[in-house]
Amino acid sequence: MREAMCRENDLPGAGWSCCGARAFNPEEATCCKDGYTNNTAVTEGLSEKVSACCGLKAYDQLNEMCCNSTIIAKPVPNAQCCDNDAYDVDKQMCCGPMENKTILTRNSSDHRCCGRDQFDPKTECCCVKEGLKTQLITSSCCVNESAVCGTKAYNTFNELCCQSTVVPKPASNAKCCEENAYDVDKQMCCGPMENKTILTRKSSDHLCCGHDQFDPKTECCYSMNNSLKIQPITSSCCVNESAVTQGLSEKVSACCGLKAYDQLSEMCCNSTIIAKPVPNAQCCDNDAYDVDKQMCCGPMENKTILTRNSSDHRCCGRDQFDPKTECCCVKEGLKTQLITSSCCVNESGAF
User: Fold this and answer.
1) Dmax (CA) of the chain
2) End-to-end Cα spacing for the chain
3) pTM of the entire structure?
4) Which residues are bridge partners to 90 per DSSP?
5) Cβ contacts of residue 276 below 8 Å, gap of 6+?
6) How far are the Cα atoms of 33, 191, 213, 230 from residue 234, in angstroms, in the given order?
7) Each residue of 58-82: pLDDT tens digit?
8) Which residues have C-beta within 8 Å of that of residue 91, sequence separation ≥ 6?
9) 70-84 burial by CB neighbour count: b if 16+ within 10 A, else e?
10) Is residue 334 within 8 Å of residue 316, measured between CB atoms?
């Protein structure tokens, strides 16, 4: 009978829901829906609290992942998809064009992809004009693969432009902390605007509290007399500065301000909790985007989400370009130009 008809006001028990024409208990099963055909299917024995859908089949996000509509075992907690396979992002790399990628053993944490190969941006560059070939950083191709920081050219692979100053990248995922660069995995940039300091990160859970850091599992950061102080989480100050979100286990949750959210299905973008459209989604200002199929381009706080033309495309202002055939011309106000143009010859690179 449940297969033939399902009505919200005539369900078998409390907490049950409809999945198409079928009733199911979200605590014990998962409903998956095809957004194109509107077909639905129920996967029994897997609670919606820990599951996600891969097509019409549900899977356990803690132990499995969905790669190209196929459910595979997750080899490590931070694994990601490389076409149909999974790889360890700390020890491996997924390199190559869309739908023809290969998994490489990462030579170092600094190495990056160059076609289906890898290179060390400290000593090499990936030369577009040579068909994505690794070249010594002193070669003419590497010199031309630079961008502009103020009035000075710099290599985007191993340098950063921080407040119009060129600084070396300490790691591939480095970011600016005022005029300095820091490794976001090992360090933190803490403090008020124009008075920040770089701290050695004590753990991945630690957060900034003024020029210091604290562990939100055991401490809180509270304001007193216009200054920020760290106190044990059991103190009266922490009780007043904190909030409790009921019905969400800390095993799958994180905090977005004083509100907790489910990391499996939600994300925190600019202090706002939004639905996670895909497992590997990232924030683009206040919105979320699929990094495999989309790009987040544009200046700070005024970005736009574009449909990615290919895995090789890069941002050029609020547009994108193919570095194999084009460049992003600074002199033209971040405009796409053919790689054979005079502007590309002088300043090809990505922004």
Assistant:
1) 74
2) 59
3) 0.43
4) none
5) 264, 265, 266, 267, 288
6) 44, 25, 18, 12
7) 999 889 999 888 999 999 888 889 8
8) 105, 106
9) ebbebeeeebbbbee
10) yes
